[in-house]
Amino acid sequence: MKILHISDLHFGPPFLPRVGESLRRAAESVSPDVIVVSGDLTQRAKPEQFEQAAEFLRQLPDAPRVVVPGNHDVPLYRIIERFTDPHRHYQRIISKELNTVLRTDEAVIVGLDSTAPRSAISNGRLHPSKLDFCRRVFENTPPELSRIVVAHHHFAPAPDYLRDRAMPKAKRAIKLFVDLGVELILGGHLHRSYIGNTLDFYPAAGRDHGIVIVQSGTSTSRRGRGREREKNTFNEIDLSQHAIRVTHHIYDDDTGIFAPLSRHEFARGSGRLSTQTDAVGKHGSAEWEAEFSR
């Protein structure tokens, strides 16, 4: 199974049309079996921004998709709306369901709404009811299927100088995911990528194998941060019988196309990074890649 993982589109003033068009072409060349969009489709949760995002998603390859809302998909300054009906436009235009399940022949993917518009507008939350939703799905999932979780907010901070805090009570969620046999967590929010393992941050939770974490940077906006400042990225994920392979793509301003930057391989069932972690393309460097893939 091949997954196209994009995030943080930010339709509105930050959106970059030329990058969006390049992403559309790249998506066609990837030819994914599943498309994952891990939140922040809009900049300010306005109806016209959701309409633009929905039109963009319709132009992507015809594949099953998992879409979750991000904190920018609920109103920030429209206070009454944020407290009374925060997902009104998202649910009308993008998806009625905030917590979703996609079942394929190879995997079960659970999309969780990590937004908390009434209490934690930026850092998000996963309330116990959403963890219960995840538990019910995976407890009835056949053991031979891969189990994947998608949420906008990050369960682990990117290991860099910006030192962002993880989502509150992330360790509680990670422990549950380990107990449920989750192999892969996909997310966004940080506006820069991180590809690694929960064992980097939570050694007591699933110390035998951990869970592979794949964070996407902003795929189509000018809001990249850290080492991906003003950069745009997405991830291509291949699940085979024995491995999870992640190819990290970055937009090249000179050529106007997305090109592979690095590749990462994890053994299925162990969650440990194998020796096949390579920097590729003109942007890559061994030193950068060694730090990036910790």
TrEMBL record:
Source organism, top-level taxon: Bacteria
Keywords, ordered alphabetically: Hydrolase, Iron, Metal-binding
Ranges annotated as biased composition (Basic and acidic residues): 280-294
Keyword Metal-binding among record annotations: yes
Region (Disordered), start-end ranges: 270-294
Every Calcineurin-like phosphoesterase domain range: 1-192
Gene3D superfamilies in alphabetical order: 3.60.21.10
Recorded family membership: Belongs to the cyclic nucleotide phosphodiesterase class-III family.
Protein name: Cyclic 3',5'-adenosine monophosphate phosphodiesterase
Protein's organism: Stieleria magnilauensis
